[in-house]
Each structure stands twice: as C-alpha cells, then as structure tokens.
Protein: GDSL esterase/lipase
Amino acid sequence: MESSHTLLAAVLLWLHLFLILIVTARAKVPAIIMFGDSSVDAGNNNQVPTIARSNFRPYGRDFYGGKPTGRFCNGRLATDFISEAFGLRPFVPAYLDPAYNISDFAVGVTFASAGTGYDNATSDVLGVIPLWRELEYYKDYQKRLRAYLGDGKAIDTLTNALYIISIGTNDFLENYYVVPQRRTQYTIDAYQEFLIGIARNFIVDLHSLGARKISLAGLPPMGCMPLERAENLANACMETYNTVAMRFNAKLSDLVLKLNKEIPGLQLVFSNPFSVLLQMITNPSLYGKSYI
Ligand SMILES: *[C@@H]1O[C@H](CO)[C@@H](O)[C@H](O)[C@H]1NC(C)=O
Ligand SMILES: *[C@@H]1O[C@H](CO)[C@@H](O)[C@H](O)[C@H]1NC(C)=O
Structure:
C-alpha cells in the first residue's frame, strides 16, 4: 500500500519548497526538522519491524550511490532539496538511522515513518511509528542537541529551524476506507474533524516545545495514487478520494488561520499541493513527461 504512494511523494514535497521560501526566504534557517509519513521518511522504518519499507531497488536508484536508503522515492525527497536550498545538507537523515549522529542531526533530521497517520489506529495497521512517538523522539533529540551544542546554541537552532509536517493520506487510504473500525465510529466528515483535532494538538505541543516556523502540508489528490488507479479497469483517479482530500485540505487551511490568530509568534503556513499535482497528473506533457 505504502509503495503506491511513492511516485507522488517526490513531486509533492517540491511544492513545499516554493511555499516555504516565500515565508522564510530572509530568515535564518539553521535546521530542517520533519514529522510525518512516507513523503518525508528517509529510513526510520528500516529500524522498525514493519513491511512498510523501501530499502531495496528500484528505490534509491537516483540517490547518491544509487542507494535505497528507505526513502520512498527513486532519488532525493523534496525535503532534501529544501534543505539544500537553505544552504544546509543536500539530504536530511532519518533519526533512527545508525549511520548518523547528533552532529548530522544538528542541521536537519526527520522523525517520519512511512505508513503512519494522525490517528493512532493508522500507525497500528502496518506497525509503524505513531505520530505521538515521533514527538517523543523529538524531545529526545532536543536533549541530545543541548548536550552537543550547549543550551544557547541549541535553543537558537530549535527556535529558528523550519519544521515540516507531512501526513494524513494514510488515515484515509490505509485506515478509514480499508479497516472497518473507524467507519463504524465516524462519518467521513466526523473522522476528518477527529484528525483535525489531533493536528491541532500536535501543533500546539510542538509550539510549546519551542517550534515557531512550521509548514503544514495538505493532502495530494490521493485518488490518483497508483494503487487507487490500479483498482479500476480504466486506471482512472478515484474522485471520491480526491473530494475527501479537498475537504480535508479546506479544514487544515482553516486550522492554520485559527492557530496563527490564537498563538502569538507562531508562523504556521499551509502548503497545499493538491491543484498543482492534479495538473501534473492530468496533463503531464506540460511538465515534460507523457508516460503517466
Ligand atoms: C559523529 O560521527 C562522526 C563520524 O561519522 C564522528 O567523527 C563524530 O565524532 C561523531 N559525533 C558525535 C557527537 O558522536
Ligand atoms: C494516541 O496514543 C497516545 C499514547 O497512548 C495517547 O497519549 C494519545 O492520547 C492517543 N491519541 C488519541 C487521539 O487517542
């Protein structure tokens, strides 16, 4: 299931780049810190007993050394390019990857886990890292960073870092529409509200831990993901799922407006990849490709 989301991941996160640069172009960004799912996992799942892995070919064939790192992508993730654009490393390592240590993580780290979601029940499906635990890893990271950089420099890094949250697709495609439990408890609208509540708490918690510049990603046109298209003979996008994504994005966008009003000093942006991605999917030749 997760690998079906791969093809879009790289394209999707590119969009963050442009949106974020507008907000933070002049500000100093000493580190990029990420939470989420396969769109921003750089190999954390390799350290977790789950089938949601991508540490084998053809993943990574265009990455440095052709290495399948655990990125759900042929090459670098969009967030790797974002890091490079800020003059940081050209890729952001996974927190659980034993090849890296705190001196690497001081300029960027991802706590993301492919297959996870806002909902705890989503991470249970494939036994991956729940979002709340990603935040626990972040707290651990803060301690290690203080020990490594000293309190002053660590606080400066944590305050000025760019935080990226990219998650939510799996709550619908891996959980709500596949596993009956949530469908018996919630209408689709009520389930979205439930997820929005979790997103709100997560951002409030992250802010209370010191984060200030946060980019919250919207959902892609998830009905056009390869697995969803493969489920019908015409290979068509599943309009129901795209509509759900649009509605959820509208709710996320509202949440961002509200939180910016409620929390002084928070710079939260909503980065919505939906329209641009849909255009790429429906009209790939505009972007130099015709094989989709
Ligand atoms: C991190 O690893 C590098 C080698 O990969 C090593 O030179 C460095 O001392 C390590 N730093 C810490 C803080 O452990
Ligand atoms: C998810 O699980 C964690 C850990 O058990 C818990 O603290 C949190 O309240 C749960 N979230 C929701 C929305 O139930």
User: Anything to note?
Assistant: The radius of gyration is 18 Å. The chain has one domain: 7-47+75-287.
